[in-house]
Amino acid sequence: MSSRSVVAPWIRTRLRAAPGAAIALAVMVALTACLAAAFPRAVDRYEDAGLHRAVEQAGPDRTTVQLYAQPEYGIISEHDVLPATLGDQYAKILAAVQRPVVADRGQSTYGVRTASSVEVPDPWIPRPTGTPAQVTLVAQHGLADHVRSVTGRLPRASDQVTASTPEVEAAVSAATAKSLHIEVGARIHVPGEGRDPLVVRVTGIVTPSDPEGAYWSTHPVLHRPSLVPLPGSNAEKYWLGTLLLAPEAAPAILGTPGNPWRYWQLAPVTDALHAYEAEGLKSAVASLESGPALQKVREVTGPLTDADTDLDDILTAYDRLREGVTPLVAVAAVGAGTVAAVVLLMAGGLAADRRRTELALLRARGASLPGLAGRLFAETATVAVPAGALGLTAALLLLPEGRRTYALAAGAAVTVAACAALPLRAVAAHRVVRIHTGREDVATARPSRRRTVAELTLLVLALAAVETLRRRGADGDELSYVAPVLTGVIAALALVRLYPLPLRRLARPAGRLRGVVAPLSLARAGRTSASAVLPLLALLTALTTAAFGGSVLTGVSEARDHAALLAIGADGRVDANEPLPSALPDRVSRTPGVRDVTAVSIAYDAQLANGRQSAPLVGVDPAGYSALASRTGLGAFGKGELTKAGEALTAVASPTVAATYGTRPIPVRLQDGTTFTVRVTAVRDRTPAVSGTEFLVVNRAELPAPAARPTALLLTGAQLNATALRKATGGAGHVQLRSEERARYGDSPLQSGAEDIYTAAVVAGAGYAVLALLLSLLRAAPERTALLARLRTMGLTRSQGRRLLILESLPQAVLAAAGGALTGWATVALLSPGIDLTTIALASSPSSAGRAELSTSALSLAIPAASVVLVTVGVAGIQAWWSGRRGSVGELRAGDAR
Asked: How far is 2 from 695, CA to CA, in rounded Å?
């Protein structure tokens, strides 16, 4: 009876032999693939949200593409304004719109309107200053679909309407009816041109379903009347409203002097606008304004058709803002991506090192390098591919918006890197068949020439990247994006070379110490495998990335704090155009959260030197105001500097005013005619009461009584309550808080999204640093467990074993932590001149806030570094405690290679 040999499958055998390592690899690949795939979709999401916010804030009157067809030779036929004709032209215009611009068919429309308003003589329509009201006649398609309610009925044209039709029906919006006192059944007489006045009978008052939509707000007067000043006079005003005719009644508009035009309004679908298509969007809009698309429209509507929109300006402004943010985000992405890649490669290298004996035996038994690499690749792919697919799926589900192509590419890149790390490392280590290998202690290993050349090449690239970033900024080129990462890599390589030096010098003196723990731990640290220094590269790269990202966030926060302080002048402010009630300061001071109130009087247009220049004049209480200026750091001065000298009031002036007038007396005249003289005795760049660069600060007690009454209160307090303050002021002044002003600087989705990316980069950098450390410690765990077991047979106690493992791990951990903190600090110092955070921090701030720069974050330097040391100590202590509980029998098996 013959027996058949059964060969166990390689992959199943390997996975069963080390299930823990397979699970750890799967978790790491899944997490990294999820983060990599989520990044491009997160960028697309916040960039699109920023574009949508910009379009929404601009309003339909600026974003809608408005096409107007002027009459040729001033003549327009009745056939041209019929709904059927306009509708056919509208369909062809929609076909001419080029993607990526997509017209919102629900808000786009067409019709006929008078280009100029027409004065109506009806006396019952209000005349605020005696000037008759004017109306615009509009016959716009789709009125019934855009009203929520109708009082009366919508207008219609039962018979054929011509330019000479005596009467037509119309509707008005509820706001128009209220302001112009229009009721259902009212008759409005519109002057005719070469005919009797056109009688417009109001049959309905409509309430718009979406008054802010493009249908109603492309021309806001459609639903909201306005008081318009007469040219050259702000006092004389008249009402301007709109009469909404039925589309079939459009020919009647031709008989009025309002210069009727045909028009087509194309409202873009906001959700279809994508930031990554900004160039295509600008090109499509430009084509509609003055390009091929407009030529196609003119072939349909006539040669005098023109387009008008501000959408291209909005896209250009947004694109400029995005271009200022993108390089900073790219720096964060490169840093986090590099750390993740290093950790993945390190995991493969540690796995190859752990299986060195197994792989050497396979090579000795005849395994070829391609065959060995193929087996290892298949083994790793069995775990990594499903894990990568799981991480990619999670990213797509968590972030449904954004381009899928980049997410797929990022997830696939992570998976391929994870699959290839182990085979490539194994092939490099086992090119030559060896049975026994010499010791590769870190204290005795010497770098090869190839490694030296590679390190020098990286050093040159790092120097070039740093210089490029310092000179040209983060938007210089792609090389500047990797400057922080290359700085960390160079520091890591330098520390790897320096690490053996202290170990060699301390080895002999340590041997003369009493006790066994310290000499043995130092000897063990020196006998660490040379491949174990690879985690140092991952640790320093991660710590540098975390420090740089934390510095960006700190710089952004400090820039916003400073800009908000410049705008408000204190923690809170109550302003008024007139003097504040005398009891208000006391009432405000009793509001919860208010610690101090500084009252000031501000005359914003004080005339200097007989009206040759104007500047804000601030009257203050010297003691309280000087304390506020010192506390805020805005132009601190001594309270004795505002003491009256002779007939002139002493003043603290801005550099501009001081340079103009020097120390000679300056005549000052206020709006109420009050005059006095001031003399500049001190110069300060800033002052809390006003945010401009021109001002005079004087003692309020020395001003004439009318000018000394406070017009503003500057509040100091840690937790000011806006609601309570507004209640306390009772409408007497406008309340502004520094916290609200600061929040306004970061309310853009583009800015907040970029900040979230940097926060994620800091967290990811710290997380991967800890992961790299754990991989390094777990790699040496079996060897350390066996060592403890053998030493316990020689009398080593549990406490000594715990100290041994901790002291053995500390040199590399402390080196990584200190080196990471120092490298992070140096990176921020080196790159700060080339990093401008103004765009991401203060996109809409005044230029007086200055340039926002990197600011070293102590927390982002200390927390990751301390975490590295704490994790090292914690893992070593847990390992010593666990090995003591297990006992030594299992670790003392004869023939154990560990």
From this structure: 107
pLDDT in tens, 542-555: 788 778 878 888 88
CA-wise closest residue to 579 among 394, 720, 710, 417:
710
Nearest C-alpha neighbor of 766 from the set 840, 870, 855, 837: 870
Contact 275, 54 (CB under 8 A): no
Token pair for 282: 């600008």
Q: Is 411 helix (H, G, I), strand (E, B) or coil?
A: helix
pLDDT score at 397 = 93
d(CA 727, CA 721): 10
Q: What is the DSSP letter of 545?
A: H
Kindly list the distances between the CA atom of residue 40 and the CA atoms of 36, 92, 388, 792, in Å, as whole numbers in the listed order: 8, 37, 16, 54
For 283, the 3-state DSSP assignment is helix
Q: Are strands 167-173 and 237-245 parallel, antiparallel or unpaired?
A: antiparallel
**Angle between the N-to-C axes of helices 19-58 and 10-17, in degrees from 0 to 180, rounded to the nearest 10:** 90
Residue that the structure tokens 């008024």 belong to:
576
Token pair 């980069």 is found at: 761
User: pTM to 2 decimals?
Assistant: 0.81
**Between these two residues, 251 and 365, which has the higher pLDDT value?**
251
Angle at 361 between CA 359 and CA 366, to 5 degrees: 100
Q: Which residues pair with 326 in a beta bridge?
A: none
Cβ–Cβ < 8 Å for 602, 615: no
Least confident of 159-163, 179-183, 481-485, 861-865: 481-485
Q: Maximum distance among all alpha carbons in the chain?
A: 129
Average pLDDT taken over every residue of the chain? 82
Report how far residue 607's alpha carbon sits from residue 700's, in angstroms, rounded to the nearest whole number.
Answer: 17
The CA distance from 205 to 182, in Å, is 9
Q: What pLDDT does residue 344 have? A: 87
Cis peptide before 83 (omega within 30 of 0): no
With beta carbons less than 8 A apart as the criterion, state whether 604 and 711 touch.
no
Q: Which two tokens stand for residue 785?
A: 């467990």
- Backbone phi, then psi, for 96, in 5-degree steps? -85, -15
Q: What is the mean pLDDT of residues 752-777?
A: 79
Chain segment 559-588, per-residue pLDDT in tens: 888 888 888 888 888 888 888 888 888 888
Q: Which two tokens stand for residue 515?
A: 């006790």
Burial of 258 (0-12, 13-18, 19+ CB in 10 A): buried
Secondary element (H or E) of residue 885: helix 858-886
The residue with greater pLDDT, 136 or 739, is: 136
389-410: average pLDDT: 92
Q: What is the DSSP string of 731-780?
A: TSSEEEEHHHHHHHHT-SHHHHHHHHHHHHHHHHHHHHHHHHHHHHHHHT
Q: Quick one: pLDDT at residue 245?
A: 94
The residue count for the chain? 898
Check whether 36 has a pLDDT greater than 80. Answer: yes
